[in-house]
Amino acid sequence: MTLDKYKDLLKRVNSGEIDVDTAYKELKELPFSDLGFAKVDNHRRFRQSVGEIIFCKGKSIDQITGIVKAMVENHENIIATRAELEVFIELKKEFDKCEYYRDAKVIVINPIKEMKKVGMIVVASGGTADIPIAEEAAVIAELLGNNVKRVYDVGVAGIHRVFYHREIFENANVIIAVAGMEGALPSVIGGFAEAPVIAVPTSIGYGASFNGIAALLGMLNSCSSGVSVVNIDNGFGAAFQANLINKKCKDRK
User: Which residues contact 122 (CB under 8 A, 6 or more apart)?
Assistant: First the structure.
């Protein structure tokens, strides 16, 4: 049941159009649907304004399909992350309104076509190899209703590339900086940007990068003020945090 349907249900009870018992039957799946292998959180959209988001890695296609089926009647803009192409192919057989963002590995079912987007989030990547994680962040941020600008391949090996885009960074409410190797990009951006910077370490790099641990530690030890850090390769987590910040300060500019 979407938020509008819940509001309509309460109005119908208030007007006497339906009785409390009838309304209770419609609400019996609140706050979650028990599928045995999963408990779908139908109440999360009330708490956080965003419905439950499906993490596909580690789940079977049957499990993912079952979760979507439990959500699709009552939700729109259902988002699934870390989804391989074969997952999309199978979901597309079941759900006509289904789109796939290949680089981000994100699927959206029942997308909101005319969603109003607010504020400005800038997503920057250190290198081209970091783009898949940066795209996960950018796509999730857009699907949550934010304006997003992408600034890719501006790593510190050619630091002039960052400053070339300085005006874009200055107009951001929040910046997501995605980088592997030594993870220096967020510190550089945090040194001149007014907006908060969310640093995303990636597992990209040679042996001593330790699959992103070096970038993670570098970002945690940033001397630039206003830099926060999410887990390795966690583009989704950065996007969700950026969404919360952007929605709070959308009128800042």
Answer: 148, 149, 150, 151, 168, 169, 171, 172, 174, 175, 176, 195
Which residue has tokens 């009552």? 74
Q: What stretch of H or E contains 41?
A: strand 39-41
Residues 190-200 have pLDDT tens digits of 999 999 999 99
User: For the domain bounded by 118-248, which CATH number is listed?
Assistant: 3.40.50.1970
Beta strands 106-109; 78-81: pairing state: antiparallel
- The burial of 243, by beta-carbon neighbours within 10 Å (0-12 exposed, 13-18 middle, 19 or more buried), is given as buried
Q: Give the integer Cα–Cα distance in Å for 108 and 9.
A: 27
Q: Tell me the whole-structure pTM to 2 decimals.
A: 0.85
Rounded Cα gap, residues 98 and 178, in angstroms:
28
Return the minimum-mean-pLDDT range out of 44-48, 119-123, 144-148, 180-184: 44-48
Angle between helix 85-94 and helix 61-72 axes, rounded to 10 deg: 40
Tokens of 244: 């919360």
Residue 197 near residue 226, CB atoms below 8 Å? yes
Rounded Cα–Cα distance for residues 154 and 165 (Å)? 9
Residues of the chain with CATH 3.40.50.1970: 118-248
For residue 165, the model assigns a pLDDT of 93
- In 3D, which of 109, 165, 108, 163 has the Cα closest to residue 141? 108
